[in-house]
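Bit of a strange request maybe. I'm writing a small parser for structure token strings and I need a real example to test against, not something I typed by hand. Could someone generate the tokens for this chain?
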Amino acid sequence: MKTGIKVFVVCIGGLMFFAVWGHFKGGFERWSEKPILTTTTPVASSIPLQKQDSSNSSSLPSVLFPQIQKQETLKVKGLYIGMDITEAYNICAQLCKGSEYRVEDIGEVYKEMEHTEHNKEFGFISGGPGSLGWHGEVSADRDGKVTLLQFEPGLVDYLFNVGEMEVTDFVQEFANSYHIPEFKVSSSGNYYYYDSPTGFRVEIDMGKNLTIKAIPSTQERKFD
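Reply from user aminoacidic:
Good idea to test on real output. This should exercise your parser:
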């Protein structure tokens, strides 16, 4: 009698084991067929400009001005490449009037720092002796013709009143206002640029630094 009970118990236990195992196995197989959960939200890049196509064109919509066949020069706040540096100095002094910024000859600033005096350059300065803040510069060639205009973010915000504006929006507004046909993205993805066939380049980086400088014109390039 006892033997029969034991056999019965063992049989019941075995049936329960296989029932539970079958349920577990089916659930596992159904779970394993499901794809692993992944986020579909792209991770934001620290430098949005790095996302670009193979043609290295800007992610901003192209700003085209078909009526402009050739832009001989770009004048920003009265400043342009090729102008006389003395005239540029006077214009910049007026632009900074009433602000925290002032213009000073770089040679004078360098003398305070015990560096060799530089000629035909001046910078945008803030602060007093011992706490000078450097905010940009204007440089010229030996003939006194401007070859570089450089403005750091704080000065850009002041000159254009764009302290709250994102860089990409600033680039677009700059293109619209100064008739830049198209800004491209650098190969490093760190800045926008436009090269004029008449011999100047505009660069705006992700920090909102603005640089305008002389480059060889299309006619001056040597591909012979």
